Each structure stands twice: as structure tokens, then as C-alpha cells.
Amino acid sequence: MHGMRNGYGSYNKNKMDYSPVSDVKLEICEVTSNIPMTKIIDFHAHIYPDDVAEKLIPKMEEIYGVKRRHDATLSSLLASANEGGIDKIVVLPVANRPEHAKLNTWYAGLKERSDKIIPFGSLHPQNNPDELNSFPKLGLKGIKFQPNAQLFYPDDEKMFKFYRKASELDLVVVFHAGDEEGGVKGEYSQPESFIKVLRSFPELKIILPHLGGFRTWDKLDLVLGYENVYYDTAHLPGIVDDELLLSLINKIGIEKVIYGTDFPWSDHWEDKEHIKKLLGNKAQKIFWDNPKTLLGLD
Asked: Which range of residues forms the domain containing residue 68?
């Protein structure tokens, strides 16, 4: 998902029931000085080697009609995270071609350059699933798939060997879910394409970003109710109405929501402050408690 903060206005609530499924209904909170500060993990950031970022990001801006908030480089990521008070950042690469998997070693090396970085890797559907065996040795905590960029349906059984291996290795699997920015439909990442995966791999740790699917929330019910699935907030604060954002969190249940920015298309300080304003003390669950549990951090 790639985007900018231009605001979409209200979502058509007639398409979906936003009645809460959790016991406690969330309401917009006023941030006050007595709210204790918690640690924060950004679970959704994208960066590239400097020379790759310089070529790739302008192309993405052209395709999606969006503008980066920052350069998609390690130095820019750390500057934004430091200003925003972010403690840890999960970096998510995408192997758009099979040969891009060789960059996994570069992403693994990021943790040596900053203790803020928690690197994930990526493989293309044409790669050998056994390449996942190297992930624990490299210190890669999970894998990112982008169905629309990699041209596969998540429920294609050819992909199941990847999910099975990831589950065996206790890796977290992050998909792109829903549509794309700029009115681009996510043909390969609609909610119905995840149902078979969620049912078939109950032990696999899965994240469906953008609270279950960007702009496909009328079908959110299709991907709810799975104990092993989490949902991040990437590219939503300041983009969709606060009422919608709270309704989605409430419907999912805050214990299953984790914080993500979609850097470089978002800014850490702005995103953090927006979430704090909406959730108050409850923000600790998505900032730290839930992602810490998912990653098995101390």
C-alpha cells in the first residue's frame, strides 16, 4: 500500500455493520499530559538501498498519484522515527521479481546498523520456499508478500508451501490486503482471497494490513474471527475519518490491532499523535503490547 494524506472523507457505512464485537466501545480521547508514554513499534515501514530508492519511489509516485513524506532510505526512516519517538521499526521488503530475494541479506544487515530495526524478508512466488530456512539464521523475523505486485492470489495452493514452511519456522507473514492508493483496485488482495489461507493455517502468524484491507471494509467480516490474525493501522490515521477508524478498531477488537505507518508515505510523529488522540491510554495496546506479543519480545 502506498499513499499520501489527502483525506478520503466518509466511507459508505451502509455497506457494513460497524457495531462493535468487543465489550468496550472506543471513543475519541483527549490527550492529556498525564497519559503515560509507552514504547512504540511501527510494524509497517518500507525502505530500500539508497540507489534503489532513488529510482523506485518516483515510479511509485507516478503510478499511484501520491507523494512520499520522506525519502525511502534508512537515514530518513531513522530520522522520522527518532522525531516521532518510535522505539522499534519492522522493515518490510517486497521481492517484485525472483532475483530481488538476494536483497534479503541487505535487509538482514539493517539490524547491525540500528538497534531500532526489526527486519523482515521477502520471496517471490517463483522462488524456492526452502529459502525461508535461511531467515532465522539471518535474523529475519517474518516475510512480506504483496499479491498485486507479485501477481498471485493468496489462496493459490501453490503458495501453501510458503505458508507451511513459515509456520514451521515460526515466522510472521504480512500480506498487502485490500485495494491500492490512487483508485487502483487490488485484484489479487481482496478479502475473499484470504479465507482459505486463514482456515488452512490456524498456527501461522498472519497480519492483514490497513485494518483488514484498504477500502474493502465492507467485506471485513470475511477475515475476522481468527485467533492467529492481526490487523495494522498503516496508511489510515488522517486518511480516513476518525469515526471510521475507531469503528474498524472496535469491530476487530483492539487486542488484535497493531500500529503501522506505511513509511515513507506517512510521518511517524503525525501518525503517533493521531493515534494517541483517538485512543488515549488504550493506544498502548496497539503501540507496544500487541506487537510485542506477536514478535515474542521481552
From this structure: 38-295
